[in-house]
Design goal:
Elements lengths: L4 H13 L4 H6 L4 H13 L4 E3 L6 E3 L11
Antiparallel strand pairs: 1-2
Length: 71
């Protein structure tokens, strides 16, 4: 099964920008709650990693830690 459109958008932004936020997805026209749910699912699947909390929360690709891990 392919990824949902919003999941593909989130992963594309995360890989191109090195991070993605719920606000990024809302700016593309997605509902905020939908964006939140999909980002949470992507974390549970190991496709994104949550960094930070609250307004500063963002999601990065696995292995792309805040310490700028070279891997």
């Amino acid at each position: 099964a392919g990824l949902h459109e919003i999941d593909q958008a989130a992963l594309t932004i995360a890989h191109e920008e090195k991070r993605v936020t719920r606000r990024d997805l809302v700016a593309l026209g997605y509902n905020e709650e939908t964006a939140k749910d999909h980002l949470k699912q992507l974390c549970e699947q190991g496709k994104l990693v949550l960094q930070g909390k609250g307004a500063g929360a963002h999601y990065v690709p696995p292995g792309q830690s805040a310490q700028n891990d070279p891997t």
